[in-house]
Amino acid sequence: MFTSRSAITRTNAIFIVAIIIIAAIAGGAGWLYYSKPAEKVTLVYETAGDINMLALAQNVLGPEFEKRNPNVKVVSVHTGPGDAGDTTILEKLKAEKDAGKQVWDVDVAMVHQVFMGEYIKNDLILNYSTTLDSWKYVTTPLAKNSLGTTVNGYVMPMFNSQVAIAYNPKYVTNVPKTFEDLVNWVKANPGKFGYNGIKGGMSGVGFVAGWLYWKTGKYNLYAVTGPYDKANEQGWDKAFADLKDFNKYVTLTAGNVGTLDMLNRGELWMGPVWVDMFYTSMLDGKMDPSIKLVIPKPGLPGQPMYFVIPKKSGNIELAKKFVDMVMSPDMQGSAIIVKYNWYPGIDGKYVQSYVTPQVYNRLYGEIPPETLLQLGLAFPLSGYMVDMGSAYEKYVSG
Amino acid sequence: MIVLYLYPFASSIYGSFVSDQGIVTLQFYETAIINYKADILFSLEVSLLSTAISAVLSILMAAYLRLTSRRIARFFNSLYRIPLFIPFVVIAQMMRTFLAPHGLLNVFLAQFGLINLETPLQLFDWKGLTIGFVWKQTAFMTLMTLGGFTMIKDEMIEAARSVGASVLRVVWSIMVPIARTIIVVALILTFASNISTFSLPYMFIGGSVPTTMTVDIAHRVMYFRDWGTANALGVISYIIVFAAAIYYMRYMVGRESYG
Fold it and tell me: What is the per-residue pLDDT for A64?
C-alpha cells in the first residue's frame, strides 16, 4: 500500500527512535547485570537429576549459602535427569582435563552413583569428604561404596532415596512382610498390585532388583562385593520365569507417577514407589493420606546422590564449605527432609533434634532407621544391572 | 538444515551399522528385531489405526465446515483448532487422568449406569493411545483438508447437488478426489507424527507390553546405554515412514479415475 512521502519519513523516524530506545534499555540492562562489585566470588554448582534438584539449588541451597557468605554468588546449572544428565557432567570434566585447562569451571557437582568409577579412574575429582566437619555424621555404607566402586573420601551423599511398597490399609489387611507374602497377596488380589516393569521408571526397576535378590539370595554378590561375572547368573531363567508368572496378576503402569496416581485413585491397592515422591505427593494433596509404606524382606534398593568436587575447581575451599553446609544436621533437616522428603545423607539420629517430631515421624514412623539400615539395599553393579534388563526382556516381556 | 537434520540423520544410520569399536555389524538390527518385533508391529498398527480414524473424522468435519453456512460453524471453526496448540506431553497428562480406571470418563459413564466402576473400561493400552492420537491429529488433518476443500468452487458442488447427489456422495466423489493431494500429504504427516511420538506412549502406557518403538529407543539408551540398537530401531522407523509415503503418493495420488 502506497503512502505519501511525509508518512514514510515519519514512520521511519518513529522506527529509528524506537530502535535507539530499545538499544539503550538493553545496553543499560546489560551493563547493570554484568558489572558486579569486584569482590564477589562465583561458585558454580552443577547438578544432574530431575527438576526438583534445580529447584533445591536455586531456591534453597544457593540463597542459604549466599546469606551465610555475602561475598559469594552461587550459580546453579542443571544438566537433566537420568544417565544423560550425569553423562553431561562427566564429559565436561573430561573435556576440561584433556584440554589442559588450569582452572575448571565447575566448582561442585551433584551426581548419581553410576559414573563414580569413571570419575575416579580419570582422576577428575578431589578426595575431600573425610576432611569435612560433617563427615562425623555420615554412617551410610553408600558413602564408601558406590555400585561396587570404592568411593571413600570422594563423595558426600546429600540424601538417600528409597523404594518401598505403598499399600492401601483399607484393602490390605495382612500387610506383606516378605516378598513371599507379597506374591501370595497379589495372586489372591489380581490386578490390584501395579508397577511399571523395567521401562519408564526406576521404582519398577527397583522392584525387579528386589525380586532378583529375593529369588537368588545373592544380594551381596550382585550389589556389594561383586565381581561381575556372567557365570554368577545361574538360576536367573527360573527367577525371571517366576516374575513372568507373577506379572499375570499385576497391572503394568506407565512409570513412577503412573503407579502413584493409580494408588491415589484406588485403582491399585499396592505398588512400589519412591519414598520421597510418595510423601511429596501426599503433601501436595495428590496422594490419599491413608496410604502406608512397607519394605518387604529381603529389602528394596535405593540410591543416593553425591556431592563431588572437581579436582581443578577454582574455589576448592568454598566448594568444601558449601558441601559442609548442606551436610550439616540443620540443613539436612530443614531442606532435605522437610522440603523434599528424602532420607538424609547423614544418620537419622543426628537430624532428629533439628526437625519437629511430626516431620521425623512422617519419614521414619513407618520405616525406622534400623529397618532402613537392614532392608535399604543398593542397586546391582552395572554389569548385573544391564543383564537384569536383558533378562527381563527375554524371559518376562518376550 | 545440514547441521540440525542431515547430520544427525546420517549419523544415526551410521551408528546402527557400526559398533563402538568401529566394526561393521548387523548385531544391532538383530537385537532390535528379536527383542522388539512385537513393539514395532504395535507402533505400526496404532499409527495406522489412529491415522485412519483421524482421516475419516477430519474429512467429515472439513466437509461440514465447507458446506454449511450456519453461524455455529464459525464457532466450530475455532473450537476444532485447539488441539493444534496442545503439545503431546500435555495430551498425555490429560489422557492419563481422563481415561484412568477411576478417571473422568469412567466415573461419568458410571453415573449413567453404563459401566460398573468396579470393572471400569481399561484404556491404558492401544485404545487409549489411539484416542490420544486421534484427539490431537484430527485438528491438524481437518485444517489441511479444509484448506483443500475451500479451493473447490461452489458451482461444482451445486452442480452435483442439482442432479440429485446426496451430501455424502458429493463429499466422497467430488470433494475428496479434488483435494486428494492435500489429504494424502496430511495422511503422511500424521502417520509420521504418530509413529514417531515418544511423550504420549511413554507417559501413558510406559512399561506395558507391548509398547511403542519410541519407548524402546529411549529404554535402550537410558537403561542399556546401547545407542547402536536405538539407532537400528530409528532406521527401521525411517523405512516404515518412507514406505508409507511412497505407497500413499503413488497409489492414492496417482489414480486417474474419480471412482
Answer: 95
Per the structure, the complete domain to which residue A15 belongs is given by: 1-35
B203 at interface of A, judged by CB pairs closer than 8 A? yes
**Ordered domains of chain B (ranges, CATH):** 2-12+24-253 (1.10.3720.10)
C-alpha cell at B13: 544410520
- The three cell numbers of residue A374 are 537392614
Reported as a single tens digit per residue, the pLDDT across A97-126 is 999 999 999 999 999 898 898 899 999 999
What is the distance of C-alpha B82 from the center of its chain? 17
* C-alpha cell belonging to residue B164: 440429485
Q: How many CB atoms lie within 10 A of CB A52?
A: 15
pLDDT in tens, A320-337: 999 999 999 999 999 899
CB atoms within 10 A of CB B37: 12
Residue A318 contacts residue A197 (beta carbons within 8 Å): no
Report the C-alpha gap between B210 and B208 in whole angstroms: 6
Q: Within 13 Å, how many C-alpha atoms sit on residue A180's CB side?
A: 2
Count Cβ atoms below 10 Å from residue A206 Cβ, excluding itself.
25
Q: What is the pLDDT of residues B88-120, one digit of tens each?
A: 999 999 999 999 999 999 999 999 988 888 888
pTM summary value: 0.81
Could you report the per-residue pLDDT of A271-330, keeping only the tens digit for each?
Answer: 999 998 899 899 889 999 999 999 999 999 999 999 999 999 999 999 999 999 999 999
Q: Do B203 and A255 touch (CB under 8 A)?
A: yes
**Cell numbers of B4, please?**
540440525
Tell me if A287 is assigned to some domain.
Answer: yes
Q: Report how far apart, in Å, the C-alpha atoms of B21 and of each of A250, B13, B251 are.
A: 41, 16, 43
A391 and A249 inside one domain: yes
A253 interfaces chain B, CB cutoff of 8 Å: yes
Contacts of B116 (CB under 8 A, 6+ apart): B110
CB contact (8 A) between residue B206 and residue A389: no
For residues A202 and A302, what is the distance between their CA atoms, to the nearest angstrom? 10
C-alpha cell at A325: 553446609
Chain B: nearest CA to A200, how far in angstroms? 5
Residues 293-332 of A with CB under 8 A from B: none
Alpha-carbon distance of A204 to B81, in angstroms, equals 38
- Say whether both A165 and A30 belong to one domain: no
> Domain check: are A29 and A167 in the same one?
no
The number of folded domains in chain A is 2
Q: Which of B96, B100, B206 is the closest to A199 by Cβ?
A: B206
Euclidean distance between CA atoms B244 and B233, whole angstroms: 17
A384 is a domain residue: yes
> Does residue A260 belong to any structural domain of this protein?
yes
Closest Cα in chain A to B206: A254
ipTM score for this prediction: 0.80
Residue A376 bridge partners (DSSP) = A300
In a domain, A150, yes or no: no
Dmax (CA) of chain B = 72
* A198 Cβ under 8 Å from any chain B Cβ: yes
